[in-house]
Amino acid sequence: MTNRTTWQRLILSASSSTLTALLLCASVPTQASAPTSGFSAKTPNTDVASSSAYVSHFWDALVLEPQTAWSQLRKSFAWQDQRLSAQAQARVDKWIEHYRASPENIATITQRATPWLAFITQQVDARNLPGEIALIPFIESSFDPSARSHRGAAGLWQFMPGTGDALGLVRNGHYDGRLDVITSTQAALDYIEMQADQWYDGNLPLSLAAYNAGAGTVNRAVRNAQSQGKSGHYWNLQLPNETMQYVPKLHAIAAIVADPERYNVNLPEIEAEPAFAKVQLSHSLTLSEASRLLDVEQSALAELNPGLLNGAIDPRSAQTLLVPDEASHAMIAKLSQGESQSAQVAEPIPDTYRVERGDNLSTIAARHNLTQQHIMRLNAIERPDTLQPGQLLTLSDS
C-alpha cells in the first residue's frame, strides 16, 4: 500500500480552515520550546522573529518533490527492506550485476514502459499489492504490449491462449485481449491474486512462480520440499530454471528502480498520471477515422491499442479505445456519446453459425455478443473444447 508522509496526509485531507489553524499553531512557540529564563512579554521583535521562523518551517515542510511514476512506484515497494537469506540474496545480486552490465537495455525497456507504468502502478496500488508486481512486464515482455513468444504467449503479461481464454480475454480475428493493456493488466492481477489465495495462503512469491510455471509444477515442488523438512517457501524450492530465476529477477530490477543512482542507471521521465485517456464506444470505429476526428497520429492510436488487430474497434469484442491524453477532451466526449460518422447499427444475431477451423467457443460467443454458457445450453455442449470444424451451432432461441 502506498505510504504517505504525515505532511502529505495533511495536504490531501486538510480544509482551508484546518490549514489556517495549523498556521496559527505553528506561529506560536510551544511551552517546551520557550526560554526558561529571561523571557519577557515586552519583546515583540523576538516574538515576530520566532513566529516567522515557525511559519517558514511550516511552509518548508509543505514543499514536496514533484511526483513521477517512478516516485509513486517506489512508495509502494514492499520487498526492498526484506532480509533474504545469504543464498537467496546471492541469486538476486547475480541479476543485479547482469542488468548493470547492460544499462542500455534497461534504458530501452524502461523507455518502452513510458505509456504504461503509471497506469499499472495505480492498478497494483489499488489492490494493496507490492509495487514490485508492476515490474513483471519488464521480465515477461520487456514492456512490449505486442510481444509474442515462440510458444504462443502474447502481450505485456505474456498470456498463453488457453490461460487468456480461461480468464475471459476475448480473442478472435479482429481483437486479442492479451494485447490490450487495460484488460490484460486486470486479468494478470486477478490471476496472481487468485492463485495466491487459492493455493498459497496469500504467498505472492509462490503465486508468481505459478504464474510462470503453472500451479501444478509449483505445488509438486512445495510438497517435495516439505517432505524433506523444508518450509516450502519459494527460495528453497527446486523448480524449472526459468522459474528459479523469475522472482530473483523481479527483486533485482526493483532494487535498481529503487535506487538507480547507486547502480549508475538513468531512468526516463514518466509522468505520475497515465499518458492516455479511455474512450468508451458503443459503435464501430476505425483508427483512421479516430485519427481524423481527434487530430492525432494514427500511429499513436495503434501503439496504444495493439489489441485491435485490423485497425478498428468492434464493440462486440472491445469497447475501450485508448487515445493520447493531449487529444481534445471535447472530441473524446463526442466519441463516447457515439457522435461519429462511422456509427453503425449492430448486426442482428444469426440463427446458426458453422464452426470454422481455428474457432473456439470464446471467440464465437464474443463475435455474436453472446455468452459461452448461452451457446452451450442451446447446443447441449458439455465441454467447450469439443467443437469441430463444420459443426453447425444454434445461436438463437427463436
Tell me what you see in this structure.
By secondary structure, the protein is mostly helical. It has four domains: 6-62, no CATH class; 69-258, Lysozyme (Orthogonal Bundle); 276-336, Membrane-bound Lytic Murein Transglycosylase D, Chain A; 352-394, Roll (Membrane-bound Lytic Murein Transglycosylase D, Chain A). The chain has 18 helices and six strands. The strands form three sheets. Strands 1-4 form a two-stranded antiparallel ribbon. A two-stranded antiparallel sheet has the order 2-3. A two-stranded antiparallel sheet has the order 5-6. α10 (181-199) packs across α11 and α11 crosses α13. The protein is flat. The two termini are 52 Å apart. The model is unreliable at 1-46 and 339-346 (pLDDT under 50).
- Low-confidence spans: 1-46, 339-346
| Count of helical regions | 18
Q: Can you write the helix and strand succession as a string?
A: HHHHHHHHHHHHHEEHHEEHEHHE
The CATH class assignment of the largest domain is Mainly Alpha
**CATH fold name of the largest domain, please?**
Lysozyme
In what range is the share of β-strand residues? 5-15%
Helicity, as a percent range: 40-55%
> How many structural domains in the coordinates?
4
**Class computed from helices, strands and strand pairing:** mainly alpha
Radius of gyration: 27 Å
| Overall morphology | flat
Pfam family, one: LysM
GO molecular function, one term: peptidoglycan lytic transglycosylase activity
Protein name: Transglycosylase SLT domain-containing protein
Keywords: Signal
